[in-house]
Amino acid sequence: MNRSPAPAHAAGRPGRGWRDFAATHWAREAVVVPDAPPLGIGPADAHALLVAAAASRTARPRLTTTDGQLREPGRLLPGPADADLTGYADRLAADPRLAGDGWLLTVRDPFGDDFARWSRVRDVLAGLWRHIGRPALPVTAELAVGDRHHAADETTVPADAAALTWVIDGSLTVRVRPEHTGTEYELHARTGDLVHWPAGSRHLDHRAGRCTTLRLTVPARATSALPLVADVVTDQMRRHPRYANGQVVLPHPVPAAADGRLVPPAQLTGSAAQFADTLAGPGPERALLLRWAGLHSAEGLDPAPPLRPGVRLTPYHRLLRTADIVRVGDTPDHAFWAANGHTWPAPGAGADRALAALRTAHGGLTVAELAEACAVPADDTRLHALLGAAYRARAVAATAPERRP
C-alpha cells in the first residue's frame, strides 16, 4: 500500500460552512475540515452521554484495550464518581487492571433518551442536507473516548457509507484508504475539526493521547437500502398467517430427484414465493413510506429518543408547535404525521385542518380553538388523541390550562 499524506487541513477561508464543503469535498476525498459547522456537543456533553450509557440497561458500551474487548468492564466504565472525561481517563490510567495500557470506550447510538443533545446533532445535519440532499436511510452515531489507542484492524464504516467524524477533544490521526486506489491518506485532526471520507473507504484510527470523537455514518449508495427493505418485507411476511404458522424444518433425508440431484425443499421455495407476493403487494411500500417519514422528520439521525410521557389535555391547554410536522398519506382517511423521528395516525379531514392551524398560529392555540378550526367538539376524543401523540413526540409544547372564561 502506497502512503501519500493528504494536506493536514482542507484549504479555504474560515467560516465557509456546509456550502463549500458540499461543493468541494463531500463524497470526493478524505479530508480534514477545520471550519465546518460546530457539532454542539462538547466534552461535558460527551461525558454525560457516556455516564448515561454505562448506567443504561439497553446501551452496550464497549471497552477495548491492547488485548481486545473486555467482556465485563464493570467499574472500568464511567460513573457518577467521575467528575468529567479527564477524571475518568485519570482513573483508568491508574487502574492496575489496565496496567497503564491504552484503551478505547465506544457507544453506538449514544443519545438514548437525551432529546436535547440528539436534536443539536440533528440540526447540524439539517444544514448539510440542504446542499447534498437528504438521506433516505438511517444515519447512525458512535461516541468514542480513548487514550493511547490504535486500531488493530482496518475497518469499514461500512463499505456503502460515508463518515463524518468530529473531534470533540484531543487529537486524532486517521489512515484512510479509499476504494479502487493504492493511495493511503494520513489525516491529522484536532479539537473542533471534522474528518470526512467517502463511501468505500477503509480506515484505521490512532489516538496518541486522550481523544474524544463523535462519528456519524451516512449511507451513500443504493445497496445501503437492501437491509432496511429486507427487514420491512420480512416484517410484512411475519404478519401473514401462512408464514407465521409454518415451520421451516428440512426433511430427512434431503429431497433428491431420481438421478440423485438435490431438490430445493418446498419450505424454502414456498418462502421465496411468499416473499415475492408480499413485495408485490401494497404493504411494503406503505411501511417504507412511514419509515421514511420518521427519518425525514429526524433529519435521518436514528434512532430517535423515545416518546416523552403524555399529558391529559383539556380544551384549555394552549399548544405551540415546536417542531416541523411531516404529513404523509394518499387520502385524509389514510394520513400519518411524523415529527422528531416518530410517526402516528392522523386520519380525517379534521387532522389536516388542525395541522394547517398549528403551522400558521404564531402564539399557539388552545385545544378548544383547534377543535373549532376542525369543526369538532372541544372534547373530541380523536382530536385529543392526535394532539396527545404530537405532544409525546415533542412536536408541540403545552402550557398549563388557561383560566376558564
Quick structural summary:
This protein has 405 residues and is α+β, with helices and mostly antiparallel strands. The protein has helices spanning 17-24, 43-55, 85-94, 115-132, 225-238, 241-244, 266-280, 283-297, 349-360, 367-374, 381-392; strands spanning 2-3, 31-33, 62-65, 68-69, 103-108, 140-147, 155-156, 161-177, 183-190, 194-197, 202-206, 210-219, 318-321, 326-329, 335-339, 342-345, 365-366, 396-398.
Strand and helix layout:
Elements: E1 2-3, H1 17-24, E2 31-33, H2 43-55, E3 62-65, E4 68-69, H3 85-94, E5 103-108, H4 115-132, E6 140-147, E7 155-156, E8 161-177, E9 183-190, E10 194-197, E11 202-206, E12 210-219, H5 225-238, H6 241-244, H7 266-280, H8 283-297, E13 318-321, E14 326-329, E15 335-339, E16 342-345, H9 349-360, E17 365-366, H10 367-374, H11 381-392, E18 396-398
Parallel strand pairs: 1-9
Antiparallel strand pairs: 2-10, 3-4, 3-5, 5-6, 6-12, 7-11, 8-9, 8-10, 8-11, 8-12, 13-17, 13-18, 14-15, 15-16
Helix pairs in contact: 1-4, 5-7, 5-8, 9-10
Treating each run of at least 4 consecutive H or I residues as one helix, how many helices?
Answer: 11
Largest sheet: number of strands, sense, barrel closure: 12 strands, mixed
Mean pLDDT: 89
What's the SSE pattern? Answer: EHEHEEHEHEEEEEEEHHHHEEEEHEHHE
Q: Quick one: overall form? A: globular
Low-confidence stretches: 1-15
Radius of gyration: 25 Å
Distance between the termini: 78 Å
Q: How much of the polypeptide forms β-strand, as a percent range?
A: 15-25%
Structural class: alpha+beta
| Helix share, percent | 25-40%
